[in-house]
């Protein structure tokens, strides 16, 4: 639960966490600055190439981590088709997929401890208000929890469909919330066993 780092070693694993997070921030800024589907498409191709650089096993794992994004892609695509705005839809979808894929790539190639160290350094100016270690740990855990909870929601949705033959809709809210609370309690116990957040 505390790590989603891929066990498949890639050249990106050897880069410093701070460098990867800075590159991700710049890449995301460039994505939201651009309104050209051509440039956004090239950015997505670059991210896919970085996944493939780690080999097919690594790339397949990365693609599996992106599965929870498909419902959002479908809704956005249908909305823009209905609005007859293919250009705007292409920009939004390419931007979203490239940004999430890049963030997922950083998550897969960066250890949680390295991410906490970088975030702790960035949070030092806030030390009079909040201990940097706690803030860094909280941010790192949020980053790690999002894909885990998305995967859990997808599994619960599949289980509901298998039992009832219908889409779960609002019925999924309670089990996902309870699963999140259960995971949070397990992480809290693990942190307490290791001496707390520091």
TrEMBL record:
Q: Where in the cell is it found?
A: Membrane
* Coiled-coil regions, chain positions: none
Q: Give the domain of life.
A: Bacteria
Which Gene Ontology terms of cellular component type are present? plasma membrane
Give TM regions.
20-53, 65-82, 88-106
Write down the membrane topology.
Multi-pass membrane protein
Q: Please give the chief subcellular localization of this protein.
A: membrane
Ordered alphabetically, the record's keywords are: Membrane, Transmembrane, Transmembrane helix
For this protein, the record's InterPro entries field holds: ABC/ECF_trnsptr_transmembrane
- Membrane in keyword set: yes
The entry assigns this protein to a family as follows: Belongs to the CbiQ family.
Supply the name of the protein: Energy-coupling factor transporter transmembrane protein EcfT
């Amino acid at each position: 639960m505390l790590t989603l780092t891929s066990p498949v070693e890639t050249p990106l694993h050897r880069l410093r966490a701070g460098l990867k997070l800075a590159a991700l921030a710049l890449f995301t800024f460039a994505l939201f600055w651009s309104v050209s589907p051509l440039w956004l498409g090239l950015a997505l191709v670059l991210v896919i190439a970085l996944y493939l650089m780690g080999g097919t096993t690594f790339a397949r794992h990365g693609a599996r981590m992106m599965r929870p994004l498909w419902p959002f892609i479908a809704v956005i695509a249908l909305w823009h088709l209905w609005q007859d705005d293919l250009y705007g839809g292409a920009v939004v979808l390419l931007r979203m997929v490239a940004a999430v894929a890049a963030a997922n790539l950083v998550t897969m190639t960066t250890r949680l401890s390295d991410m906490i160290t970088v975030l702790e350094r960035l949070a030092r100016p806030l030390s009079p208000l909040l201990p940097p270690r706690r803030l860094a740990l909280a941010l790192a855990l949020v980053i790690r929890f999002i894909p885990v909870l998305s995967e859990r929601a997808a599994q619960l949705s599949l289980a509901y469909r298998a039992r009832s033959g219908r889409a779960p809709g609002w019925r999924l809210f309670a089990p996902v919330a309870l699963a999140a609370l259960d995971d949070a309690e397990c992480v809290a116990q693990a942190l307490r066993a290791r001496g707390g957040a520091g």
